[in-house]
Amino acid sequence: MDPLAPAAPLVPRLTLGQVSDFLDAAFPPDARPALGTLVELRPGRLRMRLDPQPAMLRPGAIVSGPTLMALADVAAYAVIAAHHGPEAMALTSTLSIAFLRPCRPEPVFADANLLKLGRRTATVDVRLWQGDDRRLVAQATVGYVLPDAAA
Q1: How many domains are contained in the chain?
Q2: What is the spatial distance between Cα 51 and Cα 66, in angstroms, rounded to a whole number?
Q3: Across residues 102-122, what is the average pLDDT?
Q4: Distance from C-alpha of 132 to C-alpha of 95, rounded to nearest angstrom
Q5: What percentage of the chain has pLDDT greater than the value 90?
Q6: Strand partners, 138
Q7: What CATH number is given to the structural domain containing 26?
Q8: Residue 17 buriedness (CB in 10 A; 0-12 / 13-18 / 19+)
């Protein structure tokens, strides 16, 4: 038996469209376009895409760190919602990010992979990339406290 294999297969409770509707309801309408769009949902995984706008750039025409952190956080929030259910759970407990190379003002993809989905906490690995999913611009580990534990 593989000790690193998950205890049970992760199966989404929501469809991609339902996750998108959930995000649209959870965030203010004027903020939502800056947080990326959903591209793909699979068991334990979710992909988002962000098309950087001029306001998201820092000097040197590089996508800003706060923009990348927001994308990682929203991708983690979305993959958890897809698998945990559509409950508002705005309790990010940790977010650690490593910026690996400059992020150009081109589409940025976020691949969020559930590492743990427990009763009280969830942990997500988010890899941000451009052009080729093997060429990362950043990698984040995001932790969430789930609704039942937040009360």
Answers
A1: 1
A2: 15
A3: 95
A4: 24
A5: 77
A6: 99, 128
A7: 3.10.129.10
A8: exposed
